[in-house]
Amino acid sequence: MVRVIGQGITSMLRILLMRSQPCTLCPSKKIEASKYEPFLRHFTCTSDGQKPNGENSVTVENLCSLSVDIRKVRRIKGWVLCKKETYVKEIADILQKIGTNETAIAHILERCPEAVLCSPTEVNAQIDLWQSVCRNKKELVTLIEQFPESFFTVKDQENRRLNIKFFQELGLKNVIISRFLTTAPIIFCNSIEKNKQMIKMLQESYLNLGGSQANMKVWLLKLLSQDPFILLISPTPIKETLEFLQNRGFSDFEVLHLLSKLKGFLFQLSPTSVQESILFSKNAFQCTDQDLKELILKCPALLYYTAPVLEERIQGLLKEGISLSQIRETPMVLELTPQIVQYRIRKLNALGYSVKNGNLDNLNGTKKEFESNFGKIQAKKERPLFNPVAPFKVEE
Q: Residue 130: which of 103, 102, 94, 86 has the closest Cα?
C-alpha cells in the first residue's frame, strides 16, 4: 500500500512539474522534467522511510522490481542491502526456471534476503543436489518455498553430496533425507568421516547389547529418522550412559529395551542426570532398587525427565486425587503434562467416570489413544441396558 502511495505521489509531482513549464514560445527557458528524476526516484522504493546510508541502490531497486517488501528486509537483515556484490535478478531467474511463481519468489527473498548473495553457480549446484532426493521439480520448489534458509546455505556442497550418498547407502529413503536437508541441515556440516564413525558406534552398541544383525538396520534407520541430531553427539557420553545403566543392574536385554523405547533421547542423557532422576524416583515412590527397575522398564521416561519435572507431574496427579499406588501401577501417566492430565480428567468426569477409584489406563496414552478410549466409554454410557423394540420372552 505504501508503495502504491509512493507511485501516486510521483505521478502527481510529474503533472505539477509539467504544468509549471513556461510557454513553448520561449524554448530557451524551457525546464525539462527529466532534471527532477533523481528527486522523483526518491518516492518509488523508499517511501517507507529514509534510505539508510551504505545501501546498494541497485540491489534495492532490483528487489523492488520483484515486489519484495524492502521494509521487511531492512528490519530483519538490512546488512544484505549493504553488500556490494549481489545477484538479485540471477537468483530470481533461476527460481523462475524451476517453476517458482513471482509471488513465491518475493516471499522467499523477503524471508531469506541473503539468498541474493549466493552466486548462480552455487545455487544451480544446490538445485542439482536437492533434486537428487526429490521426486520432481514441483516437490523441490515446495521445499525451497518452505525452507529457503536451508536451501540457500550453500557452503560445503561436496561434503553435503557425500553425506547424502552415505545416507542413501545406509538405506534411508530420499523422503527422509530431504527432511534432513530442510529441518536438520546442520548434520550435513559434519564431515563424512565423523558421521560414519557415529553410525559405526551405534551399530556396535546395538550388537553388543544382544541385538541381532537382522534387526540392526531397521533399528538404526528408525533411530535416525526420528532423531537425526544424534549424529551431533559425541560417542563418549553415549558409551558412559550405557555402562552406567549396566552397572545399575540392568541386563543387556533390558538396556536394549530402554534403547528402543527412548530412541535418541537416551543418547542425550548423561550418567549424572540419570542418577539424579533415579534417586528422585526411588525416594518419591519409596521403593526398592528392584521395584524401581521395574518401574523404569514400564516407563523409560523416568530416566529422561529431570527431577523437577517429575516432581511437578507427581504433585499434579496427587492434587487431582490420584494416589501414589495408582501412579506406580501405571507410571506411563508421568509422560503427560499437568495441563493434559487436568483436561482429560475433566472430560472423564463429565461422563461420570472417576479416575480416583480405578486404574489410570483410560487417562493414559497418546491423544489418539485417549480419544479412542473416551469414545468407547461414552458409547457404553449412552447404550441402553436393553433393546426396547425386542419382545420379552414370557413363559406360558
A: 94
Hey, how many other C-beta atoms are within 10 angstroms of the C-beta on 334?
Answer: 22
CA dist., res. 92 & res. 103, Å (int): 11
Q: What is the pLDDT of residue 391?
A: 54
Q: What is the pLDDT of residue 315?
A: 93
Contact 334, 305 (CB under 8 A): yes
In this predicted structure, the answer to whether residue 10 has a pLDDT above a threshold of 60 is no
What does the DSSP assignment read for 256-303? HHHHHHHGGGGGG--HHHHHHHHHHHHHHHT--HHHHHHHHHH-THHH
> What is the rounded CA–CA span in Å between residue 322 and residue 301?
20
Alpha-carbon distance 189 to 160, whole Å? 7
Length of the chain: 396
Q: What is the DSSP string of 179-217?
A: HHHHH-GGGGGS-HHHHHHHHHHHHHHHHHTT--HHHHH
Beta-carbon-side half-sphere exposure of residue 345 (alpha carbons within 13 Å): 22
Cell numbers for 335? 509422560
**Helix (H/G/I), strand (E/B), else coil: 175:** helix
Query: How many CA within 13 A on the CB side of residue 225?
Result: 14
pLDDT(50) > 50:
no
- Residue whose C-alpha is closest to residue 304's, from 330, 279, 278: 278
Model confidence, pTM: 0.71
Q: Is the predicted pLDDT of residue 356 greater than 90, yes or no?
A: no
Residue among 321, 331, 332 nearest 369 (CA): 332
